[in-house]
Structures are given as C-alpha cells and as structure tokens.
Design brief:
single chain; 747 residues; alpha+beta; Beta-Lactamase; Helix Hairpins; Heat Shock Protein 90; five-stranded antiparallel beta sheet; 20 helices
Length: 747
C-alpha cells in the first residue's frame, strides 16, 4: 500500500512541476503585456474624453447656429422692427447661457440682449469691423474664435449669421456666449482632479479650461503645442504644459468649428496606475501558485483514500451487496460509486425523459401552428391590400383612358370638352395622391423622415383639418361635432395635420352615412389629448390588437372615399416619432370606435405663423431642360399660357447651349438627363460668367433632404419634387427672380 501511495504522489508532484514551470515563464511575458495594455487603456480613456469634449462643444455651437438661422428668418427682422426682434431673440435664449446681438454691416451693434434695448453700445474697433465685413462679404455663417466682446469687455465665442433684410440693408445675427459657459460644458463626472481639459480655437488661443481658466483663457499654449494645433494634429502626444508638468496628451479636432480639444494627464499618474494594476495582478498570480501547490497535496491525499474506498466496494459486488452512496470527495470516484446505484433507477429516468420529449414535441407543434396561421394572416392581408390597390388604381386609369378617347373623337363640343378636362384633372390628382401616399407611408414606416418640430397649438391644426374636410364636402353625409381647447405641443405641424386628417378620414370611411363623429382636444394633466370618436361599425377584439399593423384594414363602409388602408399604421409611426401614444378602443362590432392621441405638453411657446402665398405672374423668360417629351411640352404650354417666354431643351448639353444663347431668367432643370446629370448642368452654368446669373430650379422625383442638399451644393437656387402643380412652378419662378433682399429660397 505504501509503495502504491508514493507512486501516485510522485506522479502528482511531477505533474505540478511540469505545469508551473512554463506557467511562470509565460506569466512574466503576460505581465509585461498587461503593463503595456493598462497604459494604452488609460490613454484610450483620455482619447474618448477628448472626443466627448469635442462633441459637447459641437452640440452647443450647432444649436447656436440653428438658433441664429431661425432668428435670421424672423419677420420682425426683415421688416426692420428691431425692438420686436430684440424681444424675440431674448425669449429664444432664456435660461440657456447664450445671448444674441444684431450687428450692422459697419460692425456697429444695433442691440445686445445683455443690455436693455436702446442702450447705446460703443463703436466697434477695427478688428470687429473687419470681422463683420468678412462675414457679410462671404455670405455664409461663421463659427468665431475667441473674441473680446465690445459690449461686455469679456471673452466670448459666437456664431455669426449674415442676413439681408427686405430694404437691402445687411446685418449679422450673432449668437454668442461667455467662455465661462464653455467651461461649464466641459465633462466633470468621474473625471480626476489632475486631468486637464483645454479647448483651443483655430488660431490656438485658449477658449476653455477646467483648471485655472481665469489664468490661461485668451492665451496661446507653449510654442511646440501651438504648432501642432495649427497643423490640425489629432492623436496622442507627450509634452510639458504651461505649468511645467510633463503630461500625456490626447487631441481631437472638431470638423464643425475647427476647434481643438486636448486632454492632459500627468505621465507619473498614468505610469503609477499601470504599475499598480500589474503589481496587484502579480500578487494574485503568486498567491494562485501557492494555493495550487497546496491543493495538489490535498488532492493526492483524497485520491488515495477514494481509491481504497472504491476497491472495498468492488470486493463487495460478488456478494450482491449494493455499495452505499458515500462522498469520496473525488468526482471520478463518486461516479464509479454511483454507477451500480443508478442501474435501478434507469427505467424511471427513461420514462420521465419520454414524457418530457412528448411535451416538447406538443409545444413545438403548437408554436409551428401559430406561426403558420400568422403567416397566412399576413399573406391574406397583403393579397387584400394589393387587390384593393389595384381597384384604386384602375378606377382613375379607366376614367383617364375614357377621357383620352373622348378627346380624340371628332366634333366634340365645348361643354363635353370642359367636362372631360375636369375629369382628367381630378383623376390625375387622385393618382398623384395615391402614389404620394404610398411613398410617404414607406418613408414614415421605415423611419426615414426627420421632424421639423415647433411649438404648435393642436386646436389650430384640428380646426384647419376639419375646415379642409368641410370645404371639399367630405363631411356632408355625417354629423360632425368638435369640442376644441387650446393645447400647445412640440410637433411638426405638417406631420401633425397628416395624423389628424388620417384619423378623421378613418372615422368617415368606417361610419355609415348619417352617423356622428366627435373630435375633441383637451388637456389632461401634463398631456394634450386628441380624441376622434364615431358610432360606426366598431372594431372586433382581434382587430383592435392589430389595428395599427401594415396591410390590416376593416370592412370599408364607403370605398368611394378612397384610401389604401395604411393610414393608422402611418399615424402610429408618426406618434412614436413625436413621443406620443396612439390607442384604440371599441365596445365591439357596431358599437363605434375611439382613437386617442396623447402628446406631452410643450413647456412654453406658440405655433409659428404660416408663410403667405405668392401669386404667379408671367414676367420672365424660362428655359425647360427635360428629357421626357410629354412633361416638357405640357409644362411649356402651361407656362406660355400664363405669359412666360418659354424655351426648351431635351438633354443637358443642348440645355447649356440654349442657356448661353438666350440667357433666360430662370431654368427648370431635370436631374436625371440622358447625357449628363442636372447637377453637372448647374455647375457648368454657375461656373460660366455669361450664365452665372441664371436662377436654377431643380425639378426631380427625388425629394429627400440629402437630395435638396446635393442640389444646393451643385448651384441650384430652388428644388421641386415631381409631380409639381403648375401653381408651385410659377410660385418658385416668382421667388427665384425676386430681388435678393427678399431672402427667399426653396432649397
């Protein structure tokens, strides 16, 4: 027995040596890598902090730029009502740490919101006048560097937005903030006190600093650091600060403002953090080795005892004795001990396994059946949608085909000709609305739209929608009640009107003639609540659960009212984009239904005034560059009838030649041309002195925000999305040829 025990222990001892020797050597290399990794981790944290600081500055300055742009469109400003514009600018920046100023083209401040309106402001110095002149001559908004304010005498940064008002005077709308405000924006949470965050403008002058800002703001860094800032350096560095402390530095540069942000951490701190982490790891590793050796000794003792117990159990088997279940403290020995004991329980375990398998199979069949029914429901809903869409498209197409046939008949009298034209116009508009509804629904449901939110009175939007329904006679067959109270919310007015119209239209479609519809707007707690209630056919419980799904539609009472059955899905998607909630309720079939929209109330503000419409008049020469013959000829005929002098071209090259020959006032240019793109046409015309003054309007089927931005960059002055009503075309032409002081733009 003693000899056998020694052999096992010797084997275990050699096994421990064979494991520990390469482990110790490998661990030395791992600790060195860990030291390097800890250092890199700290440097990455610095880089992320620098990037976060850049994002904070960019967000604040971008918001200031948006505010300046919004103020530049103020009616008070363009009408020269500076006192009202002062109140408007002051209200916009309440509790934001940002102020506004209006500066004329000679650099003199008309007002500054840090002072009461009418307070005399000292004349600007030469630098201020030169800066304002550069902004106005450039015609583009500018993010400033560090400026010493003429009204306050303190260091500030600003967004300077040039604008020309209606009487031709030029001004700069200035959104500015003290550098103290920038210091407050710097990250502070979980930032060690020794970490230095500095912000520099494009000239390398300090804008903000989390340590001793009063000492360093307005001054440049050390010469070697100034050179790297001016070279737009980004990355990691190691240098001395103006305090004489050697630091690691992480640098990021804003692509928006051109400012640079540096995060500095003392070299000694980074190294001490890395060494401390590695030291802790090494201590833990040594302790693990000691514990492993002790565990090996303990295991050898347990193993020998377990082997003796197993031998005794084996010797008892010939006597048909079942070994007892003992804890031998070695898993392999316990498994051997339990092998015979398990034999008597195999049948029970097998039966239990069989029942579990049957239950799992039954559950799987139920899930498969549910999935199959769901797929069939979705497929059936799609088939019904396509059939309904085919019905909606065939009706106007049939009317248009019949109308075209009538026009080709000889001897048609004037009365019938007028009726045919009216039918063609109505059905064409119907087709256009169907296509627009499908495209708009796709963009909304896929989340590819951006909301232009503004303080909006929900009551005004509902009143406008109901008036529109009444004007076109859509409510003559129903009794409509409206109980409306003022409720201001933050919303996109256009999308909000779309939501209200869809809900009212839904009630009209699913309520028999003579039925009643009640629309209410009320305030409940902190919410504005819109409720559309009808006494129509109602909703079954299973239909309520999927009322907002795409391709789901109940039985329409009046198909003549049109629609594709995707209105509620669109309303639900728009509600989620607004942070609102749409719910449906019905007591059952023929019990009516109620749809409720719940918006959070706005804290303050009112809806923006609507823009006045501009009447069309034919007082300009127009060049149409369009490859589609029918579109080109119809647009030409309509503009000619309105008194415009019209020229046409069927591709980009011929359009450029025509523009050089006739120099029209306005050119309507399609983007998808057969030879060159409309963007290239615009670039070449704007780059040629003889044609650079032509106002260019893009007419295209692409209407995304990115398409408008691409058109603006190519040189277009306006952007229209097909199909375009002739009223919109003439309005765009009028705005394009209006003098520059009007400040109008369609792009």
């Amino acid at each position: 027995m003693s000899l056998r025990t020694m052999k096992v222990r010797t084997h275990i001892a050699w096994l421990v040596v064979a494991i520990l020797l390469p482990t110790v050597l490998f661990s030395a290399a791992v600790l060195d890598l860990l030291l390097t990794a800890e250092r890199k981790s700290a440097l990455r944290s610095m880089q992320e902090l620098a990037r976060a600081s850049v994002n904070v500055m960019d967000r604040e300055m971008t918001f200031a730029m948006a505010t300046a742009h919004a103020l530049s469109t103020s009616r008070n400003l363009h009408e020269g009502n500076f006192e009202a514009f002062y109140a408007q600018a002051k209200a916009v920046n309440t509790d934001r740490g940002v102020n506004s100023a209006l500066i004329d083209e000679f650099g003199q401040q008309v007002f500054n919101t840090v002072r009461p309106f009418g307070t005399r402001i000292p004349a600007p110095n030469a630098l201020a006048r030169a800066r304002v002149k550069k902004v106005i001559d450039g015609g583009r908004p500018v993010y400033s560097g560090l400026i010493k304010g003429s009204a306050t005498g303190k260091f500030v940064v600003s967004v300077e937005y040039p604008v020309t008002i209606r009487d031709g005077r030029r001004f700069v709308v200035n959104e500015w903030m003290f550098t103290d405000h920038l210091n407050k924006l710097l990250p502070t949470k979980h930032i060690p006190a020794s970490w230095l965050i500095s912000v520099f403008d494009r000239q390398g002058i300090t804008l903000a600093r989390n340590i001793s800002p009063e000492k360093f703001i307005g001054t440049p860094p050390r010469p070697e650091r100034l050179r790297t800032i001016l070279a737009n350096f980004e990355g990691l560095s190691r240098a001395y600060t103006r305090d004489g402390i050697e630091m690691y530095g992480a640098w990021e540069r804003s692509s928006i403002t051109g400012w640079s942000v540096g995060v500095g951490v003392p070299v000694a701190e980074i190294e001490s953090i890395a060494v401390h982490s590695v030291a802790l790891t090494a201590c833990g590793f040594i302790i693990a080795i000691i514990l492993a050796m002790g565990g090996a000794i303990l295991f050898s003792r347990r193993l020998i005892g377990a082997i003796d117990q197993a031998c005794a159990a084996a010797e008892a088997m010939p006597e048909y004795r079942i070994p007892p279940l003992l804890d031998l403290r070695v898993e392999e020995m316990n498994r051997l001990q339990m092998a015979l004991h398990r034999a008597g329980h195999l049948l029970v375990a097998g039966e239990l396994t069989r029942k579990q398998s049957l239950e799992e199979a039954r559950t799987a069949r139920m899930h498969a059946e549910h999935a199959r029914k769901t797929a069939e429901d979705q497929s059936r809903a799609k088939d019904e949608f396509l059939a309904m869409l085919g019905h909606e498209l065939r009706n106007p197409l049939a009317a248009i085909a019949s109308g075209v046939t009538m026009l080709n008949m000889p001897g048609i009298d004037g009365e019938r000709l007028s009726k045919v034209k009216a039918i063609l116009q109505r059905q064409t508009q119907h087709l256009s609305q169907l296509v627009d509804e499908l495209l708009d629904a796709h963009r909304i449901l896929s989340g590819k739209i951006k909301l232009a939110r503004a303080p909006t009175d929900l009551r005004d939007v509902v009143e406008s929608c109901l008036a529109s329904f009444e004007a076109r006679g859509a409510t003559t067959t129903h009794v409509l009640h409206a109980v409306l109270h003022s409720a201001v919310i933050e919303a996109d007015p256009t999308r909000l009107e779309q939501m209200v119209s869809n809900l009212v239209d839904n009630a009209l479609k699913y309520t028999p003639e003579g039925g009643s519809i009640t629309v209410t707007v009320a305030i409940q707690g902190k919410d504005a609540v819109l409720e559309v209630m009808d006494n129509g056919i109602g909703l079954s419980p299973d239909l309520i659960d999927k009322a907002f799904d795409v391709f789901t539609q109940g039985k329409v009472i009046n198909r003549a009212k049109g629609g594709l059955g995707i209105g509620l899905a669109v309303v639900n998607s728009l509600a989620m984009l607004h942070g609102a909630q749409l719910t449906a309720h019905s007591a059952g079939i023929n019990q009516g239904s109620t749809f409720t929209l719940r918006f959070p109330l706005a804290s303050r503000g009112t809806a923006a005034p609507s823009r006045p419409r501009i009447a069309a008049s034919g007082n300009a020469s127009v060049l149409i560059v369009e490859d589609n013959r029918d579109v080109r000829e119809m647009t030409s005929m309509m503009l000619s009838e309105l008194g415009f002098t019209v020229h046409t071209a069927e591709n980009g090259e011929s359009g450029i030649q025509a523009a050089l020959a006739i120099t029209p006032d306005v050119a309507l240019v399609d983007i998808d041309l057969p030879d060159i793109s409309g963007h290239e046409v615009a670039s070449r015309l704007k780059g040629t002195p003889a044609t650079s003054g032509i106002k260019l309007i893009a007419v295209t089927g692409y209407g995304q925000a990115s398409d408008r931005e691409k058109a603006r960059e190519a040189g277009f002055d306006g952007h229209l999305t097909k199909p375009v009503p002739i009223e919109d075309v003439t309005s765009a032409i009028e705005q394009a040829i209006r003098p520059a002081s009007s400040g109008s733009s369609h792009v």
